[in-house]
C-alpha cells in the first residue's frame, strides 16, 4: 500500500526537492500552498511524474490544516518565514511558532505516524562564537532584532519537542537542522541563501563582509529528510545537516575561477569589520551581520553520517551548481 506524506510550503526551495525525493521513492505527496494559483507552476518546476496533489493552508490561519493532514502517514514541515521579502522588518517569531503548533496539532488529530520539522543550525549556535556544535547544543540569545531568525527557529523547534512530549500516542518527531542551503534553483522564486550567489554574480555585492557559512546542498538535504522520515530509529532525534565551511571571499574566488567571464561582475573586494559595526546602528542588514563577523562555524553532522550513511557533497560543487542554475534561468546578468 502506498504511503502518503504532507509536505508544507510546496512552493519553497527545500520543499520542492523534498517533494521530488519522496515521489522518486514512491510516496503519494500532498503539499500546502497559500495561493492555489501556484499549483501549476510548482508542478512544472518539479518536472517529475508522480502522485502529487495540492491543498490550501496558511501558517497564520487555522483554516485548512486538518483537511491537509487527513489521511497522511507522515508530515514534513518545511515552511517557515524568513526576515526577507514580505517578512522584512516584520515579526517572524510568532508565525514560526504558531505555524509549527498548527501543523503538529493537525498531525496529531489525523493520527499521523511521524512529523519531520525543518529547523536550522541557527537553533544550535554555541555560547562561544565559533565553538563546536552538535545536536546537544541549543541557541540561547537575547531578544533583540538582530537575533530574530535564530530565535524564531529555536523557539519553534523547542515548542515542537515540548508538544510531542505531552502526546504519548504520537506523532513521533524528528528535526533536521540545515546550515546554509545551496544547490540548483528550480525557478526565479529564489531562497535567501541562493540570492546570496545571485548578488555576487550580478555585482550587487561590491564588497564582501568577513562572513561565511557551512554549506549543505538542497539535494542532499532532501535525502536526509526522507531518511529521517522513514528510519524507525530516528524517532525523537535532531540531525544537523552541514558540510564544508566557506567564507564569502572563498565563494567569490570559486565563482571567478570556475565560471570565467560569466563571473566577471563578482567582486573580490573585502568589507572591513569596523565598517559593518559602525553602520549597524543605522542599517538593519548590517546589524544582523555583526554576530557573524569573523566567526567560522564548526558544525558536526556525525549523527546523520552514522545513522544514515549520509554525506554532503563538496561545498564548492554546490556553489557552482547554484551559479550555473542562475545562469541557465537568466538570473545572473
UniProtKB/TrEMBL annotation:
GO terms for molecular function: oxidoreductase activity, acting on the CH-OH group of donors, NAD or NADP as acceptor. It holds the Pfam family Epimerase. Residues 5-235 form the NAD-dependent epimerase/dehydratase domain. The keyword Oxidoreductase applies. Keywords: Oxidoreductase. Belongs to the NAD(P)-dependent epimerase/dehydratase family. Dihydroflavonol-4-reductase subfamily. This is Dihydroflavonol-4-reductase.
Amino acid at each position: 500500500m502506498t504511503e502518503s506524506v504532507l509536505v508544507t510550503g510546496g512552493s519553497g526551495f527545500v520543499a520542492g526537492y523534498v517533494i521530488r525525493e519522496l515521489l522518486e521513492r514512491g510516496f503519494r505527496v500532498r503539499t500546502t500552498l497559500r495561493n492555489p494559483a501556484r499549483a501549476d507552476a510548482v508542478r512544472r518546476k518539479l518536472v517529475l511524474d508522480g502522485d502529487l496533489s495540492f491543498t490550501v493552508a496558511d501558517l497564520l490561519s487555522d483554516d485548512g490544516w486538518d483537511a491537509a493532514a487527513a489521511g497522511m502517514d507522515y508530515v514534513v514541515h518545511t515552511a517557515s518565514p524568513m526576515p526577507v521579502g514580505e517578512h522584512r522588518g516584520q515579526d517572524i517569531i510568532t508565525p514560526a511558532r504558531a505555524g509549527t503548533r498548527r501543523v503538529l496539532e493537525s498531525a496529531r488529530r489525523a493520527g499521523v505516524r511521524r512529523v519531520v520539522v525543518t529547523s536550522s543550525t541557527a537553533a544550535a549556535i554555541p555560547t562561544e562564537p565559533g565553538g563546536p556544535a552538535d545536536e546537544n547544543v541549543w541557541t540561547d540569545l537575547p531578544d533583540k532584532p538582530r537575533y530574530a531568525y535564530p530565535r524564531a527557529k529555536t523557539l519553534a523547534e523547542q515548542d515542537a519537542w515540548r508538544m510531542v512530549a505531552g502526546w504519548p500516542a504520537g506523532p513521533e518527531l524528528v528535526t533536521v537542522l540545515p546550515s546554509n542551503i545551496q544547490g540548483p534553483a528550480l525557478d526565479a522564486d529564489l531562497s535567501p541563501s541562493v540570492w546570496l550567489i545571485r548578488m555576487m554574480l550580478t555585482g550587487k555585492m561590491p564588497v564582501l563582509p568577513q562572513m561565511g557559512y557551512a554549506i549543505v546542498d538542497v539535494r542532499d538535504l532532501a535525502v536526509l529528510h526522507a531518511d529521517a522520515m522513514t528510519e524507525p530509529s530516528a524517532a525523537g532525534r535532531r540531525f544537523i545537516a552541514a558540510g564544508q565551511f566557506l567564507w564569502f571571499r572563498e565563494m567569490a574566488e570559486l565563482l571567478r575561477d570556475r565560471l570565467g567571464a560569466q563571473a566577471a561582475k563578482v567582486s573580490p573586494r573585502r568589507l572591513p569589520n569596523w565598517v559593518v559595526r559602525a553602520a549597524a546602528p543605522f542599517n538593519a542588514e548590517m546589524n544582523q551581520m555583526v554576530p557573524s563577523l569573523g566567526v567560522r562555524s564548526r558544525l558536526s553532522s556525525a549523527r546523520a553520517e552514522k545513522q544514515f550513511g549520509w554525506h554532503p557533497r563538496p561545498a564548492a560543487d554546490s556553489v557552482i551548481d547554484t551559479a550555473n542554475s542562475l545562469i541557465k534561468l537568466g538570473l545572473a546578468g
